[in-house]
Amino acid sequence: MEELILARIQFASTTLFHFIFVPLSIGLAFIIAVMQTMYVVKKKEIYKSMVQFWGKFFLINFAVGVVTGIIQEFQFGMNWSSYSRFVGDVFGAPLAIEALLAFFVESTFIGLWIFGWDKLPKKLHLACIWLVSIGTAISALWILVANSFMQNPLGFAIQNGRAEMNDFFAVLTNPKVLVAYPHTIFASLATASFFVLGISAWKLIKKKDVEFFKKSMTIPMIIGIISTMGIAISGHSQATYLIEAQPMKMAAAEGVWEDTADPAPWTVVANIDTESKETSMRLEIPYLLSFLAYGEFDGAVEGMNTLQSEYVQEFGEGNYIPPVKTTFWSFRIMVAAGGLMIFLTLIGLIKGWRRNLETSTGYLKWMVPAISFPFIANFSGWIMSEMGRQPWIVNGLMTTADGISPNVSAGSILFSLIAFSFIYTLLAIAMVYLFIKTIKNGPYVASSEGNIDTDPFLKGGKRRGA
Questions:
Q1: Which class for 317: exposed (0-12), middle (13-18), buried (19 or more C-beta within 10 A)?
Q2: Are 380 and 330 in contact (CB under 8 A)?
Q3: Is 464 domain-assigned?
Q4: Contact assessment for residue 129 and residue 33, using Cβ atoms and an 8 Å cutoff
Q5: For residues 295 and 441, what is the distance between their CA atoms, to the nearest angstrom?
Q6: Cis omega before residue 391 (within 30°)?
Q7: Helix H or strand E segment including 434
């Protein structure tokens, strides 16, 4: 079915592009709030310069992210109208709250923060950026509430062929939300930390504004190690949740066709043969899969063949096995990227403690491409989560094929896919251009009067010392 394939491609492409900006905005808002708190507490101008310099990236990223987010919601009515009609009463509520509450909080206080420099009292101005940070985190919560219903539908009743909410608290406290939200917040903090660390490392390699960028690495390095460790811990919580709520996704992520031994080993790499339904050439770590699944070093994991038979009995004839290779390898890419992030932040903390971070050229060179590691982990984690749910668009209630709009032609979807891709390309070019320009200018920009301006939101200014 061409319409289904094109709609899925469009949803994946626009979601992945939008997902560049969401975690970066959440993480940068928090890091900037911490930097401004240091400025208010310690009264050192270098912290103000840090807030204003990294604030530029946050504002650029936030602006582009808003545009890409609008298209996300537009798609539900355009390509997925059957899905929207079926779950609109449940799925629409958290999206509406996110837009009317969290997004307006972010937008209002971003405005006050931008134009409030040297106008609002310092503590009140500081409260603005903290409210922005809180708003971004709350926004993520409501989005995850909506997504978690797709993964684990709760708090509803089927009325007149539609899912209608009958327990808002059950929707809000969905176990999927409780394990996914910490994971998302830690991932966002790690994304922003590596973004700041990578740009700072590049500037230190070039010997530009050394004291500024050396100082800029301190806060994100600490946040980076805490958040990467948090990702690992919260990821383990998600694994123990999956074995109960979505065992087929867990089995696909591990390439398990037949029930495992007890205890079950975790597969590092393997050859997946989907035609013969076999996984061979395994490199395994004993006991680890049992620990991931149950939190203890014993316990078997049901295979996809067993689960397929159970699903056929429950839901009728059909193929309930997701794309195994995609689910399997996306999970391993995510784990590999996360492991590298933990390793690099630990090395960075050691070098910072030894006070030789700015002279460790080899390490700094690694940190520049490491900007991409959190994004790779974010993308692969999202792919694993969504593809591992297939063939369901709402787990156990509606298949993805049934959620497509019945009256939208393949040509219409293809046209919008090309149009959105063109717009996204222009946005990406503009964003990259502005980022590069900001990096090249550095934190101290010459004003028209010949002074040095460290304030990106106000014109003019005097040279500010460190």
A1: exposed
A2: yes
A3: no
A4: yes
A5: 50
A6: yes
A7: helix 410-441
Residue 1 — pLDDT band, cuts 50, 70, 90? low
Tens-digit pLDDT profile for residues 33-58: 999 999 989 888 888 888 989 998 99
Q: How far apart are CA 395 and CA 153, in angstroms?
A: 7
Each residue of 126-167: pLDDT tens digit? 999 999 999 888 888 888 888 888 888 888 888 888 888 888
Q: Mark residue 295 as left, alpha or beta (left: phi above 0; alpha: psi -120 to 50; beta: remaining).
A: left
Closest alpha carbon to 55 in 116, 2, 9: 116
- Which pairs with CB-CB distance under 8 Å and at least 24 residues apart come from 151-154? 151/176, 151/245, 151/246, 151/385, 151/389, 151/395, 152/176, 152/245, 152/246, 152/395, 153/90, 153/394, 153/395, 153/396, 153/397
Give the pair of three-digit tokens for residue 107.
Answer: 């937008």
Q: Based on the structure, what is the number of domains in the chain?
A: 2
Output the six-digit token pair for 415.
């046209």
* CA distance linking residue 169 with residue 447, whole number of Å: 54
| 271 lies in the same domain as 136 | no
Place of tokens 């002279």: 359
Q: Using the structure block, give the residue that is written with the tokens 């996360």.
A: 338
d(Cα 378, Cα 184) in Å, to the nearest integer?
A: 9
What letter represents residue 226's amino acid? I
> What is the rounded CA–CA span in Å between residue 293 and residue 295?
6
State the amino acid at position 425 in one-letter form.
T
pLDDT tens digits, residue range 300-323? 888 888 888 888 888 888 888 889
- Cis ω on the peptide bond leading into residue 182 (within 30° of 0)? no
Residues in the chain: 466
Give yes or no: residues 94 and 226 share one domain: yes
Residue 53 lies inside a defined structural domain of this protein = yes
Same domain assignment for residues 225 and 263: no
Hey, what are 226's tokens?
């805490």
Instruction: State which H helix or E strand residue 363 sits in.
Output: helix 361-367
Domain that holds residue 355: 2-242+326-453
Same domain (yes/no): 251, 283: yes
Beta bridge partner(s), residue 283: 269
Single residue among 305, 322, 339 that ends a domain in this structure: 322
